[in-house]
């Protein structure tokens, strides 16, 4: 087995001391241009690589950043992690990613694990910022951290969306499209404070437009089949003409389940999501949604952590009114006059509904 070259081998090849090689490679001290060239030539010829373990022992840093998110199954978190990782790599840091599956115990375990690995900082999304054992650990250990997507308590930093204002915007959009009876579909509030804040903002927005208070359907992240839950929900609230899903991933699942129930989107039911993931623009109908910039948020969180580590000027957080915008889509349509007049919607049309049957026949007829 061929042994890797050591720093002593590089020093011998370059004709200098080990300390000189270390200064050149770490850029931590003086060395002549000629000696730097000799060292770099020796490094290349010997294919020398610094041992990260040795480097961390010398510098008391590991040049790693931890990242904790609920799931990368939801593309919004995958995009945010990608943005964070790009910044870390450019700065010479590696990223260690752990997903918690919206589980509080896994969240605490993930943070303990990263602390034990002596990461230099952590970017994280927690279930509830006001009740997180993991955040308490980070504060007590004085580990640099930046929240991602959580609304930050006073004195803490977070790269997040103004969930409350964005959700109120959804209520306004439904109102402008003549929808008075709406529902909110979101993850269990105990595992996602983002879902809770979006519901609160949506409910207040509905109230400001004299709309009926939104009906609430909470689902677990591991709920594979939304269809029976949606069917029961709409039968319990037959006047609902629009649903606001707390994220695009759930909105797309709602569209799929609606089709399985022979509910036409948007003719029978309008749906609005939250996040603005790319796949929402690739389906038919396209998804109306609150558009955000997850990659930019992830990158900002990484820059914040790096500024904490090296003492540089932190990046400026975006103003909250610039963190989202409404994107129209085919999943939203104005409520038709007859439905608006009688306050009802045929979410489950009768088998004798000739208009619905004709639409179904046209859809199923071979082209």
From TrEMBL:
Signal peptide residue numbers: none
Region (Disordered): 345-367
The keyword Transcription regulation is annotated on this UniProt entry: yes
Domain HTH lacI-type: 5-59
UniProt-recorded name of the protein: Transcriptional regulator
Record CDD domains: HTH_LacI
Keyword terms, alphabetized: DNA-binding, Transcription, Transcription regulation
SMART domains: HTH_LACI (SM00354)
One family name in Pfam for this protein: Peripla_BP_3
SUPFAM superfamilies, A to Z: lambda repressor-like DNA-binding domains (SSF47413), Periplasmic binding protein-like I (SSF53822)
Source species of the chain: Thalassorhabdomicrobium marinisediminis
InterPro entries per record: HTH_LacI (IPR000843), LacI/GalR-like_sensor (IPR046335), Lambda_DNA-bd_dom_sf (IPR010982), Peripla_BP_I (IPR028082)
Record GO terms (molecular function): DNA-binding transcription factor activity; transcription cis-regulatory region binding
